[in-house]
Amino acid sequence: MSAHPDTATSPDEGHYNFAYLDEQTKRMIRRAILKGIAVPGYQVPFASREMPMPYGWGTGGVQVTAAILGADDTLKVIDQGSDDTTNAVSIRGFFEKTAGVETTTRTSEASIIQTRHRIPEALLTEDQVLVYQVPIPEPLRFLEPRETETRKMHALAEYGLMHVKLYEDIARNGHIATTYAYPVEVNDRYVMDPSPTPKFDNPKMHEMAALQLFGAGREKRIYAIPPHTKVKSLDFDDHPFEVQKFEKPCGLCGAENVYLDEVILDDKGGRMFVCSDSDHCEDRRSHGHLGEMAADPAASHLASTGEERA
Amino acid sequence: MVAPHAATPSLTAALAPGFADPVHDAQRCFRALMQTMARPGTIQAYANETIAPPTPLSRTLAALALTLIDYDTPIWLDPALAQNPAVAGYLKFHTGAPLAETPGDAAFALIGDPAALMPLSNFNQGTLEYPDRSTTLLMHMQTLDAAAQVTLEGPGIKTSQPFGAAPLQPMFWDQLTANNAQFPRGVDVIFAGATGFATVPRSTRITKTEA
Amino acid sequence: MYVAVKGGEKAIRNAHKLLAKQRRGRTDVPALTIDQIAEQLAISVARVMGEGSLYDEALAALAIKQSRGDLIEAAFLIRAYRTTLPRFGYSEPLDTANMLVERRISATYKDLPGGQLLGPTFDYTHRLLDFTLAAEGEAPLDAVETAAIDEGPMPRVTDLLSDEGLMETDPLPQEDDVVGDLTREPLSFPADRDLRLQNLARGDEGFLLALAYSSQRGYGRTHPFTGEIRYGAVEVEFFAEELGFAVSLGEIKLTECQMVNQFDGSAKTPPKFTRGYGLVFGQVERKAMAMSMVDRSLRWEELGEECTAPVQDAEFVLSHSDNIQATGFVEHLKLPHYVDFQAELDLVRRMRKEWFAAREKRDEDLGLSETKEQEAAE
């Protein structure tokens, strides 16, 4: 068909192309990425492929990463902020196997970071790309299940429904009851789903130096936020957007103003809070920052690589 | 793809080398392009010495084409590129992309002579519901670092970004300003210089520099 | 404890080893061969080929073996493999009128040209467990008496009705009509019938069955008659541009179902029957029938009917028919979600705090502050 059959350069015995996807699929995804960058926050339909992992488990992010990844990239994969979570391990292993690229757990060393549910605490740079895994890309989906309708709303920038929903929250609960996947407005135009990151991470998206790409495999959408782009969390004058505040710093590294995981230590109400961003926490501890539970035997398995078992 | 029947001169041109390493060459080209699309008006260095497209298709323009187009993307060639049939033959052979009947049907328009560019409104502007269905222009430029003609602002630009390229049709920046005004509809422009790329996507706000 | 996800790499490796062991089962029981599965579990194989969207019996059998008989998992394996295959083009339209028929029945006529051919079917079997199959060896099978295959043609029932003008005609494709392909372009709405049929052909048998059933029970009734079900081998041809003519790629086995449904007609056109269409790989009759009923239901708009039921709602049906998508998203809830859950915990605690504070204030205002202590400790 083509003058040059796409050469199989993967280390995986040549069964699959570099980074698994065939070149035509990569081209199709690359075109969608360019459109996404040109129209920030707009969800570009793309012919998402079946991947060798289930829909809903990061196939969108994996396809975006596979389409942009090069042999000289260094890849970091996190899930819930951690490099050690099972799905992050699985996706990282997939790219090690199919692309043979270097991987890292260090945020600062990565050129591409694929994430599910968190944005790293460390500031990202111009030279990095953040790839989000997105389950439901349509921020209006839970208000209007029909694609035909939501597409019209985006076309006309008619987002009244979203404001009504948020306001109903306030009337009912005294708060906007959306704590994650909190909708944002990009570049004063499109309302966008930031993926199910906690709203704590929303401010990091605003004018981030790194390019942010979003892949939703099952729903077949790609979207993007270019660097230095205005990203505003929706709110009201009398109920301004605010993020979660944790009462205590990280028990292991003492970090404040970071997102913390609550860890239940026993069945008697014992619990501690530790950084959700495991690399950030390790980095701080290696620089001598210690939290009040760092030496506690109850927390020792959190600070090490921990038990390994099936 | 249909195998041509005889070794005509245009066939020789069609068979002229594309990417030596299609997988990694296309990836490198795309990353440079993505980088500049995300940072409008900045120049990303890119060169590929091995590909040998027929004139007047430049190496960088050809590299962009090989990276982006295939069976699924109708292309339109401006008169400068269309006058040598070998250009269409080369692109057809390496990518399989069909030729669009009108510029409005094209996913990509390849522009060999941007000084003679037809009005942008001839290209597909996308719709409000599907703004992604617009044409992307790939333009061959002699220079990407001419004296600043415009100042760019918007997504991808921290404060502002001066930019100038040549040659351009005299009304080009006015048209591109109008293009931005109809956001999210509109075309995206990729400039292919001799040693790199620059872009001005539809999201970029343009102010002409005082002469 | 959820933090056991730390050290995930080794845990995953070990889990997969366990899975491999479980899959094999007791080693004193002989392992299944691919041939055994392909020959003896042919309907499973056909379902996996259909929902996996790839006609290859050996690969489907392998997928069933690898997935321990989980047919959705097997279809998923086939889809993930299929997507890596190079695409050479599209075959010529299949001609099911020229099918080498093994089974052909019509519920609308007692007899018809080509005859009724019962063929291999569970129909009219008594569903009694056959314990002779459980015995170590099977008894030799009885010879089968079949009618000599009729040399004559076996026209489709819907064609017979069309000849009389009683059936809406098949839409004839124009030379340059582009047939949609939702593996190349994401589905968008409204979706034309070509895309709807492709979606249904890949869709989950159980989902289509339930939808078709709902239409029989009054949720969007279409008055279906089984015009015809035919099962057999059809030749697949590919037009080779280099040669200028179509070449045969081989035969595949298909089940085609055409439902005859109630009427279309207007002041301009006389009343006629309408139809729903189902086509699946292999002998998966239940799905072919369900598909044809759902197809007909989805045509409400074109036929000037009202949309009142889920089975008629194209966006609903087509968005949820794919079991590979569905199983992935349902099962993804197994992945850790503790970051988002933390955000919810934080909010619910905050709201409770405010709730108790508000009540305390209200009680104080009413002079009831003594009773609150013990309740607040709940």
UniProtKB/TrEMBL annotation, chain A:
Gene Ontology terms: biological process: organic phosphonate catabolic process
Spans annotated as Disordered: 285-310
GO MF annotation terms: 4 iron, 4 sulfur cluster binding; alpha-D-ribose 1-methylphosphonate 5-phosphate C-P-lyase activity; metal ion binding
Keywords: 4Fe-4S, Iron, Iron-sulfur, Lyase, Metal-binding, S-adenosyl-L-methionine
Catalytic activity, EC: 4.7.1.1
One Pfam short name: PhnJ
Recorded superkingdom: Bacteria
Function, in words: Catalyzes the breakage of the C-P bond in alpha-D-ribose 1-methylphosphonate 5-phosphate (PRPn) forming alpha-D-ribose.
Family under the similarity heading: Belongs to the PhnJ family.
Protein name as annotated: Alpha-D-ribose 1-methylphosphonate 5-phosphate C-P lyase
Lineage: Bacteria, Pseudomonadati, Pseudomonadota, Alphaproteobacteria, Hyphomicrobiales
UniProtKB/TrEMBL annotation, chain B:
Entries under Gene3D superfamilies matching the protein: Bacterial phosphonate metabolism protein PhnH
GO molecular function, one term: lyase activity
Taxonomic lineage: Bacteria, Pseudomonadati, Pseudomonadota, Alphaproteobacteria, Hyphomicrobiales
UniProt protein name: Phosphonate C-P lyase system protein PhnH
Entry keywords, A to Z: Lyase
One Pfam family of this chain: PhnH
InterPro entries (alphabetical): PhnH-like_sp, Phosphonate_metab_PhnH
GO biological process: one example: organic phosphonate metabolic process
Domain of life: Bacteria
Xref: NCBIfam families: PhnH_redo (TIGR03292)
Annotated signal sequence range: none
From TrEMBL, chain C:
Matching InterPro entries: PhnI
GO molecular function: lyase activity
Any single biological process term in GO: organic phosphonate metabolic process
The protein's name: Carbon-phosphorus lyase complex subunit PhnI
Keywords per UniProt: Lyase
